[in-house]
Amino acid sequence: MKLVALTALVMVAFAANSVLNRAAVGAGQIGALDFALVRAVAGAALLVLLIRLRHGSLPLLQPRRMLGGLMLTTYLVGFSLAYLAMDAGLGALILFGGVQVTMFAGALALGERPPARRWIGAALALSGLAWLVWPGGAVSLPLWAVGSMGFAALGWGIYSLIGRGSSDPLGDTGAAFVWATVAGFVALLVQSGGSPVNDATWAGLALAVTSGAVTSGLGYALWYEVLPRIGASVAGLVQLSVPVIAALGGVIFLSEAPSLRMLGAGALVLGGIAWGLWPQRTSGSSAS
């Protein structure tokens, strides 16, 4: 039960990142790449502080940690760039669909054999997500934006797979955020021509810091705590709940209007996840 509660808390943190991003970037309080950079800096600062208080050292040059930093950077930058040219709904569909594929492929590569029930549950949940976020009318997306979100999905999926072997969640997450901060500065300087964080309001900066320090830094450290205790396919499946929680957060905190489609699609997503995670009967239990 504790593992279920921790996993649910992580999903709420992930969804909160989406709500905070929409409140800051969507309202023009801060630029997309500016938000990503401040998010990385705030997460790194808090995690390094906690690590220093705990044992005082943070090795950064371990290959696993460098790869984790690269994948986290791929996710953060790809995510921010993609949302310059697509709405939140389609972005979530591409992101979590890509994460799902990456995590299930990783599960197979790591020797997991997800049961048929989990594949069916994933398909149901993904179809519910598509129903939730698909816009009306024709859809035209720039190829570079789709590619950016695809790279973000690949980065997050691999980052999560790396976390399955974590024995020091706080240290691994802190190192990843430090590397993401360095890479984020470089990306933003290239994009802005040498002048980072332009035209950001105090509200936008506060939302980015909250996202970085709390729902990203602490949330991702908790994710690395949870990941070694669940399978890769389970990790991929439960993340499909994030857009539903984010939609609910938008209704509560951003005054977004609920709809019957939101309720129906949310039920389909959560029902698919529940079906995929429901324990299978063994032959012994069915005979008893």
TrEMBL record:
One of its GO terms (cellular component) is membrane. The chain crosses the membrane at residues 36-54, 66-86, 92-110, 119-137, 143-162, 174-194, 200-223, 230-254, 260-278. Residues 151-274 form the EamA domain. It is found in: Membrane. Keywords: Membrane, Transmembrane, Transmembrane helix. It is a multi-pass membrane protein. PANTHER family: AMINO-ACID METABOLITE EFFLUX PUMP-RELATED, INNER MEMBRANE TRANSPORTER. This is EamA domain-containing protein. It comes from Roseicyclus marinus. The lineage of its organism: Bacteria, Pseudomonadati, Pseudomonadota, Alphaproteobacteria, Rhodobacterales.
